[in-house]
Amino acid sequence: MKRSTIITTLLAFTGASALVAADDTAIDQQVESTQSAHNIPSWWEKELVEADVVIDFRGNRIVDGTFTFEAHGPRSRYDRKDGSSIIFDGETAWVTPADAEAPKGRFHVLTWPWFIMAPFKMQGEGINLSELSAAEVNGTEYITLFQTFGPQMGDTPDDWYRFFINPETQLVEGMSYIVTYGKSEEQANEQASIIWYDNYNADGDPAIAHSYEFWLWDTESKSVEGEAPKGTGTITEVSYPDASDDTFAIPSDSRELPLPDAKG
Predict the structure, then answer these.
(1) 61-103 pLDDT, tens per residue?
(2) CA-based diameter of the chain, in Å?
(3) Predicted local confidence at residue 156, as pLDDT
(4) Gap between the Cα atoms of 35 and 3, Å rounded
(5) CA 168/CA 161 separation, integer angstroms
(6) Where in the chain are the domains?
(7) 3-state secondary structure of 7
(8) Rounded (5°) CA angle 138-40-151
(9) Which secondary-structure segment (H or E) carries 125?
(10) Which run of H or E residues covers position 49?
(11) CATH 2.50.20.10 is right for the domain spanning 3-257
């Protein structure tokens, strides 16, 4: 099935979530189209990604600093404006200096790099894609794909994501999700959200969104809830430095940030 046929078939359906019985080949072709639109050849050339990230939620600034993370690996670091840093070495998260406060530090150092990289992480070992669908959100038709994870995938393998892809540009414009960090899967499913990606700026580099909006999300009707977003984000000063042995080194003055237990 050619890409044009996939899109035509999907958009022939109407309603909130018209599911198409797509085989793996159709899903693979959709992923190829979307990742090509995001310039994945350029992404494969990168070692590290560096960006200034600001996230505001419900009137509070919860993230403000510089993230550096591997384009093709798990390691990441978040250098905060207050001079402290949170570093994930591939297995464990640390905060330095050891006496620095780090509320949800492990969550932040892992979550925001993944949200930035999401269009480039659609497939891979331990990642499952299904439900190639058409959905209308706020009067706009999207192609959607549902993403789940294997049991050994990261801190929160029970998380899920649903991509909302613009059928004309093939860019990921939205991604609904749940967060099971520190909560049960049942609780997380009752508190679904969606991130809307905007202000794509590539200039020959990977196409990464520079503006975010976060909304509460109704998974049944596939619609946003509320009159205004619950949060916003900006990504600026994106660059792609070469890897260094010191980038993810853990200083001696550090303490471990364990994964919190899920709440029942």
Answers:
(1) 999 999 999 999 999 999 999 999 999 999 999 999 999 999 8
(2) 59
(3) 61
(4) 13
(5) 21
(6) 3-257
(7) helix
(8) 75
(9) none
(10) strand 48-57
(11) yes
Evaluate whether 98 touches 91 at the Cβ level (below 8 Å). no
Confidence of residue 22 (pLDDT cuts 50, 70, 90): low
Q: Which residues contact 3 (CB under 8 A, 6 or more apart)?
A: 29, 30, 32, 33
Measured between alpha carbons, how far is 32 from 26 in angstroms, rounded to an integer?
Answer: 10
The single residue listed with the structure tokens 């001696």 is 252
Q: Over the range 82-116, which residues count as b (16 or more CB within 10 Å of their CB) and which as e?
A: eebbbbbeeeebbbbeeebebeebbbbbbbbbbbb
> In this model, does residue 49 exceed pLDDT 80?
yes
Residues 63 and 53 sit within 8 Å (Cβ to Cβ)? yes
Query: Does pTM surpass 0.90?
Result: no
Q: How far is residue 254's CA from residue 96's CA, in Å, rounded to a whole number?
A: 4
Buried b (16+ CB within 10 A) or exposed e, 225-246: eeeebbbebebeebebeeeeee
Distances (CA, A) of 85 to 65, 71, 77, 97, 105: 9, 19, 7, 7, 9
Pick from 42, 112, 98: which is nearest to 251 by CA? 98
Q: Write the CA distances from 26 to 130, 150, 213, integer angstroms.
A: 10, 22, 30
Going by C-alpha positions, the residue among 52, 39, 45, 5 that lies closest to residue 167 is 5
CA angle 210, 190, 141 (to 5 degrees): 50
- Which secondary structure element, helix H or strand E, spans residue 189, and what is its range? helix 185-189
Residue 126 CA to residue 108 CA, distance in Å, equals 22
User: 8 pLDDT band (50/70/90 cuts)?
Assistant: very low
